[in-house]
């Protein structure tokens, strides 16, 4: 016969085992519930992330084949004109300014008030950087085709074309009322772009498949740079000291600073664009050293210190929000 003390010990031992079993089941159940809640939270986060990314992609500003670009006169915005319309960048944000398509073959030349739009039918329009018409300009239909350029005030116009194997320059210094013509014997290669110095209308540069040709006397004389290299884009900087940015293409793409007063050419070593042709270079009239470079694939790079550092603003024709 068990005594009363032994019975109490057995009962207490059994109760302790039951209590431990209950605690084990409780914590296992709690862990399972916690695990399920964590999985549910991860699922919600994943769905939200995908949805947010989709919204960002849908809201992303995109642009097509680039036709021209420039900075506003105040220097606070960069605008890009493409076949799909006009977009702008300011302070880390992109905006669609004009959705109307611009016809292929249209030439866009930046000026202080916006840009000049040269159509293939012998007409031109001056518009603000939002695409609104400022004025229409009548041009001779014999100048259809060729390459156009203009000074910052949209008062001096230059047109380069080939006539019977000769490279011809047609120009007006009174807003298109009167025109003169001359032959450019010193310029070699096929013309790809024309840029005019914003400070002085008779200073301009012609980019060709055989180099860059700069004149400071309205085309009477030219100084050659980047000889025998194909120069796809060129732009003048502002200020009294004459300087240019020029992009070459071929086996590798390169970006150069040209300093005519010193007969100096400086390779900016912009390795990020190697193999991608530079189609536009825009320099701010307001902030010295600020420039944007646009590539054929739709990438946009910005520098604020004359090419020492670059930030990417767009890739493959898609604006990157937050880039500053």
Structure notes:
The protein has 324 residues and is α+β, with helices and mostly antiparallel strands. The protein folds into two domains: 1-59; 65-319, TolB, C-terminal domain (Neuraminidase, 6 Propeller), CATH 2.120.10.30. 17% of the residues lie in helices and 40% in strands. The chain contains one helix and 25 strands. The chain has one helix at residues 4-59; strands at 66-71, 78-82, 85-90, 93-98, 107-111, 114-118, 123-128, 133-138, 147-150, 157-163, 166-172, 180-183, 191-196, 204-208, 211-215, 223-225, 230-236, 244-249, 254-259, 264-267, 278-283, 291-295, 300-303, 311-315, 318-319. The chain has a five-stranded antiparallel β-sheet with strand order 21-22-23-24-25, with no helix packed on it. Strand 9 (147-150) and strand 10 (157-163) form a beta hairpin. The longest helix is centred in the N-terminal third of the chain and has 56 residues, at 4-59. The radius of gyration is 32 Å and the shape is elongated. The termini are far apart. Residues 50-58 have low confidence and may be disordered.
Instruction: Describe the sheet with the most strands.
Output: 5 strands, antiparallel
Which class do the helix and strand fractions yield? alpha+beta
CATH architecture of the largest domain: 6 Propeller
Rg computed from alpha carbons, rounded to a whole number of angstroms: 32 Å
> What is the molecular shape?
elongated
Helix/strand order: HEEEEEEEEEEEEEEEEEEEEEEEEE
Q: Would you tell me the overall average pLDDT?
A: 85
Blueprint (SSEs and pairs):
Elements: H1 4-59, E1 66-71, E2 78-82, E3 85-90, E4 93-98, E5 107-111, E6 114-118, E7 123-128, E8 133-138, E9 147-150, E10 157-163, E11 166-172, E12 180-183, E13 191-196, E14 204-208, E15 211-215, E16 223-225, E17 230-236, E18 244-249, E19 254-259, E20 264-267, E21 278-283, E22 291-295, E23 300-303, E24 311-315, E25 318-319
Antiparallel strand pairs: 1-2, 2-3, 3-4, 5-6, 6-7, 7-8, 9-10, 10-11, 11-12, 13-14, 14-15, 15-16, 17-18, 18-19, 19-20, 21-22, 22-23, 23-24, 24-25
């Amino acid at each position: 016969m068990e005594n009363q003390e032994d019975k109490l010990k057995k009962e207490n031992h059994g109760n302790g085992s039951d209590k431990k079993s209950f605690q084990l089941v409780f914590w296992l159940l709690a862990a399972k519930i916690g695990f399920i809640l964590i999985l549910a939270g991860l699922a919600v986060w994943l769905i939200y992330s995908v949805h947010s990314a989709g919204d960002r992609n849908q809201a992303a500003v995109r642009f097509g084949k680039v036709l021209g670009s420039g900075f506003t006169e105040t220097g606070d915005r960069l605008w890009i004109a493409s076949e799909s319309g006009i977009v702008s960048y300011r302070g880390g944000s992109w905006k669609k300014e004009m959705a109307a398509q611009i016809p292929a073959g249209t030439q866009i030349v930046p000026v202080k008030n916006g840009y000049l739009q040269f159509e293939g039918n012998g007409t031109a329009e001056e518009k603000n950087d939002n695409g609104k018409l400022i004025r229409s300009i009548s041009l001779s239909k014999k100048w259809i085709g060729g390459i156009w350029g203009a000074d910052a005030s949209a008062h001096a116009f230059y047109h380069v074309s080939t006539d019977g194997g000769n490279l011809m320059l047609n120009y007006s210094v009174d807003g298109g009322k009167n025109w003169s013509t001359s032959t450019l014997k010193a310029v070699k290669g096929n013309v790809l772009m024309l840029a005019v110095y914003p400070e002085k209308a008779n200073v301009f540069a012609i980019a060709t498949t055989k180099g860059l040709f700069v004149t400071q006397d309205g085309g009477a004389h030219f100084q050659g740079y980047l000889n025998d290299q194909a120069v796809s884009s060129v732009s003048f900087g502002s200020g009294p000291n004459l300087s240019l940015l020029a992009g070459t293409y071929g086996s590798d793409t390169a970006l150069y600073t040209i300093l005519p007063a010193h007969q100096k050419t400086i390779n900016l070593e912009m390795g990020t664009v190697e193999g991608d042709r530079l189609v536009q270079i825009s320099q701010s009239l307001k902030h010295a050293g600020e420039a944007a470079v646009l590539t054929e694939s739709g990438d946009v790079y910005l520098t604020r210190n004359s090419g020492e550092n670059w930030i990417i603003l767009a890739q493959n024709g898609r604006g990157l929000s937050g880039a500053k």
